[in-house]
Amino acid sequence: xxxxxxxxxxxxxxxxxxxxxxxxxxxxxxxxxxxxxxxxxxxxxxxxxxxxxxxxxxxxxxxxxxxxxxxxxxxxxxxxxxxxxxxxxxxxxxxxxxxxxxxxxxxxxxxxxxxxxxxxxxxxxxxxxxxxxxxxxxxxxxxxxxxxxxxxxxxxxxxxxxxxxxxxxxxxxxxxxxxxxxxxxxxxxxxxxxxxxxxxxxxxxxxxxxxxxxxxxxxxxxxxxxxxxxxxxxxxxxxxxxxxxxxxxxxxxxxxxxxxxxxxxxxxxxxxxxxxxxxxxxxxxxxxxxxxxxxxxxxxxxxxxxxxxxxxxxxxxxxxxxxxxxxxxxxxxxxxxxxxxxxxxxxxxxxxxxxxxxxxxxxxxxxxxxxxxxxxxxxxxxxxxxxxxxxxxxxxxxxxxxxxxxxxxxxxxxxxxxxxxxxxxxxxxxxxxxxxxxxxxx
Length: 442
Hints:
Elements: H1 5-9, H2 13-21, H3 25-38, H4 54-67, H5 78-95, H6 100-105, H7 107-123, H8 127-154, H9 174-195, H10 201-207, H11 209-220, H12 224-236, H13 244-261, H14 264-271, H15 277-295, H16 306-313, H17 332-369, H18 372-391, H19 401-423, H20 426-432
Helix pairs in contact: 3-4, 3-8, 4-7, 5-7, 5-17, 7-19, 8-9, 8-11, 9-11, 9-12, 9-18, 12-18, 15-17, 17-18, 17-19, 18-19
């Protein structure tokens, strides 16, 4: 049964269910993977935790389903090549590491994302599938953001030493939760802009709770990196909108309100940035990590060998008294550079740049074609990537889902856009994307 794209944009529950229920087994399993990876019911409801491999099981089932799908499409592009090249460099770095055992103990932290990337990019190949997967991503992220915003409000928007934390898993730490929020917020904001012409006013207002609660949760985490990333995103909004004066006014209001909500203790932390013990320790990690990269330019000191290498060669540069040893470097570029050397760092940065330029190109093409949904989503994806990159300068999250799921979504957009523009006649493309009547300006 075919489902109207317009009905999907109108968020009709029946249409959304039919679109999901009539799709393939491989896509069902991909959706379940994302649900269990982000919502993590195994960490919330008793009983689910009896089995510890939900996410990986659904990925395997999705791959099997894809193999036996007679209509499957093999997807491969430059981003795919970059992901697999990065994995090869990790393998070589692990083989030649100072402590190979440490590398192989952590090997699956990177390898899992290569498998997930491959499987999801093979199964999310249409606009309809991308849209449903995006809604799952939003619902899971909104679950985190609304909980964080409520807790922050109940505190009277006051400072707490540990900030806000998420459920057990990737988003448990406040810094990691903040990154998910700065990834989620711009995507949700521009998603609303892309479909609001098909929604009732109350639905639009309700959807705006997504970016609003995401911003509040970011502030409530008390993490300087996440808050800085949010501020950079807000400023960057000026560059992606045609109504720059209006946006500057909105930014001024947001900045004023955000500053008022920022607890006094958090303001003091920003004032002490670079001088407090936490900042000094991280600066030492970055400085010594850079030395490691220069001393081992081709393969680094070894995948996940930063901690043992630092403990052996820089023990005097641990300035926080209660620490018994080094931590990971709190910077994605130092992490990847010490893991895989400059070649690995070049590929990693190439993936980020490739995602940025691919979305910018597709966004321009979609705007010219009058595809308001995709033109806006491209802007949201670019700002989300910017938020990850800025926040990633303060946390060690190269092998967390942020970038890898983002690359999945970018590749999926590129796949269905290519299919629509190259293999469908103009009349069919109009049915696939009904939001072509107006420009893509926010």
